[in-house]
């Protein structure tokens, strides 16, 4: 940075003189304050007519009419905003955020405070979809009272509409308690990532008859306890279709559970292709964001290094008279200092 106070006219850097020659002066432009990151308009664009808030009743109506339900994870304001703007039915603040956003090696590392921070950000962007958040590992296991206390924080401080819990029959009392105080619960059965160590890895569940029966019993018992929907992860498609038919009213949402469920969910980063690492069998990449990001960063760095960015059209102007006055002031200061 130049210290203009001590630079005499003859010593002024060439860039400064060149710059003064290239001034243009629309004062309206000069007086406006621009931010590179400004909040978007709150209005939902791209959806006509504007959508109504998605309710549990609406999801049940979709199930009855056999209209597939779309659910997608979101972890911050922009991803929440995208779910809102592009017609997703359910936004899930999944605890996969531990891995895809926070760089932990397992969802079991995520704390309730970290989750709350992200639910709040998503909630600011996603108003219309039903907003569900995963209860982090350890926040609903000690007792149903503990689960209620923590779920209340997720609703009250975070802005979640409902919570999702991973587990089976052992959660029946907890689901009953939560729903009895008005906190809607989505049950999550099949592969339970929070138990990946106990399960010896992220393995498909319900592949043999006994374990398939276990998954079915869990889904039926959790619906009976009050769960408004059941997420089925990584189970054979015939089993998922069967469970979907056996449940009385709760829609099923599948991930790695085939086409026979009432809806589908994917992790944002898997769908968008924000990374090119391991791809589970059930993941389809619907976009290639990683390549776009790479292209963008390379082009930006190149433009900075060859000084083609920023161009004069990407820079602010100063009225010529103000620039000349500024130079006089600098000279006055320099003369005083001499
Ligand atoms: O945390 C998560 O992303 C999930 C998936 C099953 C969608 O729960």
From TrEMBL:
Q: Name one GO molecular function term.
A: 3-methyl-2-oxobutanoate hydroxymethyltransferase activity
- Name the UniProt key words of this record, in alphabetical order: Pantothenate biosynthesis, Transferase
Q: Which domain of life is it from?
A: Eukaryota
Q: Name one Pfam family in it.
A: Pantoate_transf
Tell whether rRNA-binding is among the UniProt keywords. Answer: no
Q: For this protein, what reaction is catalysed? A: (6R)-5,10-methylene-5,6,7,8-tetrahydrofolate + 3-methyl-2-oxobutanoate + H2O = 2-dehydropantoate + (6S)-5,6,7,8-tetrahydrofolate
Q: Which pathway is recorded for this entry?
A: Cofactor biosynthesis; (R)-pantothenate biosynthesis; (R)-pantoate from 3-methyl-2-oxobutanoate: step 1/2
UniProt family annotation: Belongs to the PanB family.
UniProt-listed PANTHER family: 3-METHYL-2-OXOBUTANOATE HYDROXYMETHYLTRANSFERASE (PTHR20881)
What's the protein called, per UniProt? 3-methyl-2-oxobutanoate hydroxymethyltransferase
Q: Which organism is it from?
A: Lentinus tigrinus ALCF2SS1-6
Q: Mind giving the lineage of the organism this protein is from?
A: Eukaryota, Fungi, Dikarya, Basidiomycota, Agaricomycotina
């Amino acid at each position: 940075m130049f210290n203009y106070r001590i630079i005499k006219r003859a010593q002024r850097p060439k860039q400064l003189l060149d710059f003064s020659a290239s001034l243009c002066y629309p004062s309206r432009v000069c007086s406006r304050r621009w931010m590179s990151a400004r909040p978007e308009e709150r209005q939902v664009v791209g959806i006509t007519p504007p959508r109504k808030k998605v309710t549990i009743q609406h999801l049940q109506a979709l199930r009855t009419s056999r209209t597939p339900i779309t659910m997608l994870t979101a972890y911050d304001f922009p991803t929440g905003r995208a779910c809102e703007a592009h017609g997703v039915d359910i936004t899930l603040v999944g605890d996969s955020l531990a891995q895809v956003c926070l760089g932990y090696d397992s969802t079991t590392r995520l704390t309730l405070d970290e989750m709350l921070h992200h639910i709040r950000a998503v909630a600011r962007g996603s108003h219309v979809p039903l907003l569900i958040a995963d209860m982090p590992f350890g926040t609903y296991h000690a007792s149903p009272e503990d689960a209620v206390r923590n779920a209340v924080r997720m609703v009250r401080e975070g802005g979640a509409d409902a919570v999702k819990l991973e587990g089976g029959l052992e959660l029946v009392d907890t689901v009953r308690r939560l729903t009895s105080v008005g906190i809607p619960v989505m049950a999550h059965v099949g592969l339970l990532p929070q138990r990946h160590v106990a399960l010896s890895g992220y393995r498909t569940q319900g592949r043999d008859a006994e374990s398939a029966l276990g998954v079915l019993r869990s889904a039926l018992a959790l619906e009976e306890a009050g769960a408004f929907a059941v997420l089925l992860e990584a189970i054979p498609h015939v089993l998922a279709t069967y469970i979907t038919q056996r449940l009385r009213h709760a829609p099923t949402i599948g991930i790695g559970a085939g086409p026979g469920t009432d809806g589908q969910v994917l992790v944002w980063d898997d769908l968008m292709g924000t990374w090119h690492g391991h791809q589970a069998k059930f993941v389809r990449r619907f976009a290639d964001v990683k390549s776009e990001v790479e292209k963008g960063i390379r082009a930006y760095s190149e433009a900075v290094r060859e000084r083609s960015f920023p161009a004069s059209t990407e820079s602010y102007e100063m009225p010529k008279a103000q620039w000349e006055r500024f130079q006089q002031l600098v000279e006055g200061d320099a003369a005083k200092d001499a």
